[in-house]
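Entry 14. Structure prediction run on the chain below.
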Amino acid sequence: MANLPQRVQEALTGLRDDLACLKDQLGAIQRTLEYEFGRPRRDLQGHDPARMPLVAQVQVEAETRRIDVTGLLGKPATRGHIVNIGDAKALLWWTFGPQRVGPYVLLPAAAVELSFALEVLEVSDAGEGPAVVQLLLQ
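Output returned:
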């Protein structure tokens, strides 16, 4: 660098500063997107539009139905929705790896949009009669 003319050295220094600013701006954009949409997982297979989604209707009464989403789709679901089309509340539990969350009360005529990875879905009635849930998962 000592052999380069002064103007070239100044230009390189300015370029280095500009690149550092761009790197900071890209980092800020990445953090904003991660706050909004979550961090992508490299080990999780994304959605392939060429594959058919899992479309199912589940009716439960006095028992819990366990749907192995990974077994049916060949991968964990990463998008889709669950709709209660019955007249009674449904209880839902979500499972991904060792983490199990629930119960989530899904009211009649309500829907839940999937915004997380799902391996197993458990559906149960809430004691108000049979619960009917439709699934569309990808």
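The beta strands are 54-60, 64-68, 80-84, 90-96, 99-106, 111-113, 120-125, 131-137.
Filed with the rest of this week's runs.
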